Each structure stands twice: as structure tokens, then as C-alpha cells.
Amino acid sequence: MARVLTVTLNPALDLTVQLSALRLGHVNRSESLQMHAAGKGLNVAQVLADLGHQLTVTGFLGEGNPQAFDQLFAARGFADEFVRVPGDTRSNIKLAEADGRVTDINGPGLLVSETHCKELLTRLERLAPAHDLVVVAG
Asked: What DSSP state is assigned to residue 128?
């Protein structure tokens, strides 16, 4: 199988709220809540890992809330090459109704300094040659 590097520039902690129906302007009761590390590049990495590929993941993560990401990387066996930057990785809220309708409320991304951008580019120059494929997403 292939060695794949995924680049996720704007990952997120997704909080999915299941509810029967969203009633705007009213108190709504959720049926369940789930929080997980996400971002398009990480979602791609998980699918590719399920298909048997070896994954390295990189991009930018906030120093303030890395736990869900660290757990995902450890559980999936991903090589973690994320650049940690000051602040919290953004949070998104997904309101999932029983009829299949989903409303997304996406938070703002991290502010990334020029120094951290250069650090990511240096990592990419080091990592890319050792991989068969690079996916940039998100």
C-alpha cells in the first residue's frame, strides 16, 4: 500500500448534536452529542487508512486543545507532523435533525504567523519525498 501525506490547514473539533427537529427561537433538547477531531484532510486520512494505506498527517493545530487530535492520531496509527500554534483549533457545531437535514455553524480558524507557515513549508519539503501521494484538503 501507499505512503500518503495529508495536509489539513484548518482542522476542527466537530460537535454533532442529534435532535428530532430544530425549532428556531425555542429551547431544543438534544438526543445525543458527539465530539471528534475533523477537517477534510483528516477525514481523507481516515478513509485511506481504512483502505490499508500508511498515513502521515500535517497542517496547523492549536496548542490549547490538542487532546482529541492526539487521541485520533494514536488510535489510527497516524504519524503526527502537525505544527502547533498558539490558540485553540476551531470548533464547529453540526445540528443533525432526524429528517437528515444538517445545519453547520463553523468557527473561525487559527491565526497563523509567517514563522509557523515557514515551519510547515520546511516540514513539507522534508516529508513529501518519502511519500507516494500528497493530499492537500480543507
From this structure: G
Summary mean pLDDT of the chain: 97
Specify the 3-state DSSP secondary structure of 99.
coil
Decide: 80 and 70 in contact? Cβ < 8 Å.
yes
Contact of 19 with 99, CB cutoff 8 Å: no
Encode pLDDT of 46-65 as tens digits. 999 999 999 999 999 999 99
Distance CA 9, CA 109 (A): 9
How far apart, in whole angstroms, are the C-alpha atoms of residue 135 and residue 138?
10
| The overall pTM is greater than 0.85 | yes
- Residues 6 or more apart whose Cβ sits within 8 Å of residue 112: 60, 85
In order of 3, 29, 83, 106, the CA distances from 98 in angstroms are 39, 13, 38, 21
Alpha carbons 97 and 72: distance in angstroms, whole number:
26
**In whole angstroms, what is the distance from residue 45 CA to residue 4 CA?**
8
Find the mean pLDDT for residues 116-137: 98
The 10 Å CB-count burial string (b at 16+, else e) for 69-89 is beebbeeeebeebbbbbebeb
